[in-house]
Design a protein that fits this description.
Blueprint (H helix, E strand, L loop, with lengths): L6 H9 E4 L4 E5 L2 E4 L5 H9 L10 E4 L16 H17 L2 E3 L9 H7 L8 E4 L13 E4 L2 H10 L1 E5 L2 E8 L8 H12 L7 E6 L1 H4 L3 H9 L8 E3 L4 H7 L8 H11 L12 E6 L6 E3 L7 E3 L13 H14 L14 E4 L1 H4 L2 H11 L9 E4 L4 H9 L2 H8 L2 E2 L20 E4 L14 E4 L2 H10 L5 H8 L1
Parallel strand pairs: 3-4, 3-6, 4-5, 6-7, 9-10, 9-12, 10-11, 15-16, 15-18, 16-17, 18-19
Antiparallel strand pairs: 1-2, 2-8, 13-14
Bound molecules: 3-isopropylmalic acid and iron/sulfur cluster.
Length: about 475
């Protein structure tokens, strides 16, 4: 009898080109996504050694981090971004790679664009010089974030050197209560296992609550696997996955589609396969989550209070959590719902998809963005933007006083003019609340799209479960 394997084991085995005695493997890479930040030196490396891109058709480039989200017919105000963007245009042209520039409606955050185009498919190995490549694992693909020297290696050889990670299962049972979303699940998991909890592992998410999620929700979960320290996140593909992919521009068609689906159906963890670590979570008891510190593990229920670091026995952790509170300008014991905010950012590869915008818009009703708040919605891609506009969501946002922007990474990491000012406090649907992430001395609270939209209107955090009741 063959050994029972996990989904990760299967994809690994199917792509292994060579295995050294020390456990170093060489993996064939099916898909390579490229953006402007981590690719310039890689292309330069190819040029200097006179090499070509091994399989240009397996590579797709898009500009996302540096693009302005304001009117793109106006000159880009940031000279560094202009250089960065021009380099990607030239490199993709010189090396024959398909490229979505800032004027292409398929442009957007790379991890939204890949799935949207059907470039991301189950069972594939997918890489990108970007940590949130883990997003693509929602399709049952083994998706690694890689560094710039590895980008060069993949461009030149279509392979990647990797040591195999360990298998972790995160089992999420039960049904999510109303108002609680995929974002709350993943924030709760990171709160539970910590930002180093996934180190050395590839996480497979399973269980009733995961199966019940849409593809958008599954992407939100896998997206943040990296914030738990994991190498990648995976969810076994199912009918929802196939339905999402079917008909996308780069998805297989006709006979190839049938063959592909037959293979994709084999992409599940075998009964009896061994996981090195198992974590369980009950979705039925999950509240909406808000982060209070400067790490994605610093999370608490919206009904909670800012924790007291003095309760932590370990000295270094205690000190670092005190520092986080100081940075965030918060005092232990403050009710989360009493924290007032200045800015709201709805967008990013975590929560910038159509379903996220629908959820956020549905919360608004006739509400208006609070006087003290400035709020923006940045669709994850041009296609998300187009769809949202077709549904009239842009109008709901604009009428309520939100800014409606062009697609890109935007204030997720502030590599463009969208930044917090020092001391400003933001309810953000993105994935990182590190110091300075959204602007120098800016303060980030990670939340779900509905929690962000409701906070924009209330001017402080609110429990979305109660909000829905009072707004009805
Ligand atoms: C700029 C890029 C390399 C970076 C990443 O790797 O994730 C960015 O996307 C981020 O989210 O911090
Ligand atoms: S949206 Fe944010 S997390 Fe995603 S790729 Fe862009 S900067 Fe990174």
């Amino acid at each position: 009898m063959t050994k029972a394997r996990t989904l990760y084991d299967k994809i690994w085995d199917d792509h292994l080109v060579d295995m050294q005695e020390d456990g170093t493997g060489l993996l064939y890479i099916d898909r390579h996504l490229v953006h402007e930040v981590t690719s310039p030196q890689a292309f330069e490396g190819l040029r200097m050694t006179g090499r070509k891109v091994r399989q240009p058709s397996r590579t797709l480039a898009v500009v996302d981090h540096n693009v302005p989200t304001t009117d793109r017919s106006l000159p880009n105000p940031d000279p560094d971004s202009v250089i960065q963007i021009a380099a990607l245009a030239k490199n993709t042209e010189d090396f024959g790679i398909e490229y979505y520039d800032a004027y292409d409606k398929r442009q957007g955050v790379v991890h939204i664009v890949g799935p949207e185009q059907g470039f991301t498919l189950p069972g594939m190995t997918i890489v990108c010089g970007d940590s949130h490549t883990s997003t693509h694992g929602a399709f049952g693909a083994l998706a690694h974030g890689i560094g710039t020297s590895e980008v060069e290696h993949v461009l030149a050889t279509q392979t990647l050197i990797q040591k195999k990670g360990k298998n972790m299962l995160v089992q999420v049972d039960g049904q999510l209560p109303d108002g609680v979303s995929a974002k709350d699940i993943i924030l709760a998991i990171i709160g539970e296992i910590g930002t180093a909890g996934g180190t050395g592992y590839v996480i497979e998410y399973a269980g009733e609550a995961i199966r019940a999620l849409s593809m958008e929700g599954r992407m939100t979960i896998c997206n943040m696997s990296i914030e738990a320290g994991a190498r990648a996140g995976l969810i076994a593909p199912d009918e929802k996955t196939f339905e999402y992919i079917n008909g996308r521009p780069k998805a297989p068609k006709g006979e190839s589609w049938d063959k592909a689906v037959a293979y994709w159906k084999s992409l599940t963890t075998d009964e009896g396969a061994k996981f090195d670590k198992v974590v369980t979570l009950d979705a039925a008891n999950l509240p909406p989550i808000v982060s209070w510190g400067s790490s994605p593990e610093d999370v608490i229920s919206v009904q909670g209070v800012v924790p007291n670091p003095d309760d932590i026995a370990e000295e270094n952790t205690r000190k670092s959590k005190w520092r986080a509170l100081e940075y965030m300008g918060l005092t232990p014991g403050t009710k989360i719902t009493d924290i007032e905010i200045d800015r709201v950012f709805i967008g990013s590869c975590t929560n910038g998809r159509i379903e996220d915008l629908r959820a956020a818009a549905a919360v608004i009703g006739n509400g208006k963005v609070a006087e003290r708040v400035s709020a923006m919605v940045v669709p994850g891609s041009g296609l998300v933007k187009e769809q949202a506009e077709a549904e009239g969501l842009d109008k709901i946002f604009k009428d309520a006083g939100f800014e409606w922007r062009e697609p890109g990474c935007s204030m997720c990491l502030a590599m463009n003019p969208d930044k917090l000012k020092p001391g400003e406090r933001c309810a953000s649907t993105s994935n990182r609340n590190f110091e300075g992430r959204q602007g120098f001395k800016g303060r980030t609270h990670l939340v779900s799209p509905t929690m962000a939209a409701a906070a924009a209107i209330a001017g402080h955090f609110v429990d979305i479960r109660e909000w829905q009741k009072t707004d009805a």
